[in-house]
Specification:
single chain, mainly beta, about 110 residues, elongated, 4-stranded antiparallel beta sheet, 5-stranded antiparallel beta sheet, 1 helix
């Protein structure tokens, strides 16, 4: 009898995004991965911060894609490095450091 192993779910998103109009940043989103979720803050404004699951963060970052921005405005988007996140055997979120060797950053 063979046992099937369940494929581990992963999420991939950039750790930050900035939208520029000319040389001015008009919108930004910064994130920090914690074991219990992802902290996100918009425009470096404490009233615009929150806690997200990795899947929610993927959806949040999609709003910064050029095709999702207002047309007709001279906007430019920059993204930070992309991370891949998974849930470890203890139920905590961790960054996948080397996907080929399944090493996890704790």
């Amino acid at each position: 009898m063979t046992t099937k192993t369940k494929k581990q779910k992963t999420w991939k998103y950039p750790i930050w995004a900035k939208v520029y109009q000319g040389d001015k940043v008009v919108v930004s989103m910064m994130t920090q991965l914690y074991q219990i979720g992802v902290y996100g803050i918009m425009n470096n404004n404490p009233s615009q911060q929150g806690s997200f699951s990795p899947s929610q963060m993927v959806k949040q970052m999609k709003q910064f894609r050029p095709e999702n921005l207002k047309e007709g405005m001279d906007l430019r988007v920059e993204f930070g490095r992309e991370i891949t996140v998974t849930e470890n055997e203890d139920g905590f979120y961790v960054e996948v450091v080397n996907k080929n060797e399944d090493k996890l950053r704790k």
